[in-house]
Every structure is written in C-alpha cells, then in structure tokens.
Amino acid sequence: MLWSDPDDEPPEELRDTQDMLRRLGILMALAMVVAMLVLGLL
C-alpha cells in the first residue's frame, strides 16, 4: 500500500447512515417479534 493511497475509511455521512440503518434493522426485527407474539396471543 502506497502512502498516497486514500484511506479505506468511509466518509462520516456514510458511517452515520450505516449506523442508522443497522439500528432501524434491529428495531424492525424487534417489531416483527412483538407482532408475532401479539398475533399468537389473539
């Protein structure tokens, strides 16, 4: 790797977006579990 090569780190906005999408995915998974429990209790 040359000293002139750009860093492999993604830009700040991209990292923020990835974190938000990760949190949204976890939230959606939890919502699905809760929905399945509620439907199972009906």
What report would you give on this structure?
With 42 residues, the protein is mostly helical. Helices cover 71% and strands 0% of the residues. It is built from one helix and no strands. The protein is rod-shaped. The chain starts with 11 loop residues before the first helix and ends with a helix.
The level of helicity is over 70%
Order of helices and strands: H
**pLDDT averaged residue by residue:** 88
Our Rg estimate from Cα atoms comes to 19 Å
Number of helices: 1
Gross morphology is: rod-shaped
Biggest β-sheet strands, sense, barrel: none
Q: Note the gap between the termini.
A: 60 Å
Provide the β-strand percentage band: under 5%
Q: Could you say which structural class the secondary elements and strand pairing correspond to?
A: mainly alpha
Spans with pLDDT under 50 lasting ≥5 residues? none
Count the E strands: 0
